[in-house]
Amino acid sequence: ASVETDKQLSNAELITKRVNTRFHEGPLCFSPDNKTVFFTRNNISKGKNRRDQKGIQNLKLFKSTIDAEGKWLNEEVLNFNSTEYSVGHPSISTDGKTLYFASDMPGGFGGADIYKVNLNPDGTYGQPVNMGKEINTEGQEMFPWISSDGNLFFSSNGHVGLGGLDVFVMLADKNGAFGKMMNVGKPLNSQNDDFAFTMNPDNKTGYFSSNREGGKGDDDIYSYTLLKPF
To answer: What is the rounded average pLDDT of the residues 174-202?
Structure first.
């Protein structure tokens, strides 16, 4: 979609059917050079092993390269996916070295947790690392987004909030380490679910999703403007 001057989205266009399937394609992110895209999709493995032992069709992370014409090519499944748990909601750091994602893989604190993994120069991946108890709870932590100034945003229903999923931020210090965690507060957060927060490179404007009252349907996309630093 194109972004108009009033922040409205127009001319929505469907990406090729080579990407979009009859399953869910969800949150994605682009590498800093815009030549690689990581995206979320239901497990579409051929055969009968699409679902886990509980009959759930979990999420997987995929990677594609993008050519000069914008075509998505060389689709591949990341090697730390599994049919037994979900991996999704990618966000890549500005230097292109770290991928953040959400997963309910074994060994977490409960529900979905936020993880990170190193993206090696040779195209391989490091070992996924749980972001720890400062971020993750027994509830759900999902939709991580790392801004260009190094702040990590995510949605959670396990931390004290206004209701449902709220957007939180882990602020980066001058050395790039995460320090204070904050609920971003009203009016971005509501008594309903607020999630899928993203920020433009200006670090002042962006978009998020919410099922708050007054929308067009269930989950809607909203824009915001940050009036002062956190």
So the answer is: 93
| Closest by CA position to 135, among listed 190, 183, 70, 82 | 183
143, 115 contact by CB (below 8 A): no
More confident residue, 71 or 45: 71
Rounded CA-CA distance 215/211 in Å is 7
How many CA atoms are closer than 13 Å to the CA of 25, on its beta-carbon side?
16
What would the two tokens of residue 35 be?
Answer: 């030549």
In angstroms, the CA 7 to CA 142 distance is 25
Q: How confident is the model at residue 36 (pLDDT cuts 50, 70, 90)?
A: very high
- DSSP at 4: P
CA distance 196 to 81: 21
Q: Do 147 and 155 meet the contact criterion of CB atoms below 8 Å apart?
A: no
The model carries a pTM of: 0.92
Q: Are 71 and 54 in contact (CB under 8 A)?
A: no
Residue in this structure with the two tokens 């990341």, named with its chain if needed: 78
Tens of pLDDT, residues 124-173: 999 999 999 999 999 999 999 999 999 999 999 999 999 999 999 999 98
User: Which residues touch 182 (CB under 8 Å, ≥6 apart)?
Assistant: 168, 169, 171, 230
* Tokens (6 digits) for 176: 């790039």
